[in-house]
Predict the structure.
Amino acid sequence: MITVQGLAKRHGELPVLEGIDLEVAEGAVEAIIGPSGGGKSTLLRCLNGLERFEAGEVRIGALRLTPHTSPRRDAALLRQVRRQLGFVFQQFQLFPHLSVLGNLVEAPMHVLGLSRDEAEARARALLERVSLSSKADARPHQLSGGQQQRVAIARTLAMQPRAILFDEPTSSLDPAMAADVLALMAELARDGQTMLVVTHSMHFARQVASRVHVVVQGRIVESGPPEAVLEAPQQAATQRFLRQVV
């Protein structure tokens, strides 16, 4: 589903990602962990074309992004990539002037071409799934952080993406709200949703992910099943990181 080969990214002369290789199979749930500032969020943004990169390539199914991919020249390609890859941000990124229902129907109507009735039926079913049916007419500012993030997840699901990228989806939430969001993500995993999740939650990585990747200073220093990486890490960088978060 997602293949990354030799991905390298710089900000000016500063290397951010160096030689990233990664594969995510259809139906897999994979976690990316590591110290802050290591390039984890930048990696996700490169996968769906929000960030350009200097070397390597990204394949999303049959679609291919390269260092030569241009936001202007290759706009149609990027639209295809983003239809297949949903993105859930740290700060929700809901449209503040739209209701919860409005946030969910906008893209299915204008990108997928659904009628309003079709889009609303899909949206209401998803709000039921995330336990927010009663908030359909609310504005984002009237919701708690955890509720806003569940709306953001429902909005992503409304596009029926093949995979979803999550960028630290609980980092701005208190523990109770974070637990609600992580429980929803675990439910999506059980339903077979392909997910690549940048997270600080070792519980999620241990209990839900099928594979864990440790990113330190722009490199994947260790990958493997959660029980191997989290319980018996082989690399010193992984061991240092886990001592800090336990």
User: Anything to note?
Assistant: The mean pLDDT is 95. The chain is about 40% helix and 25% strand.
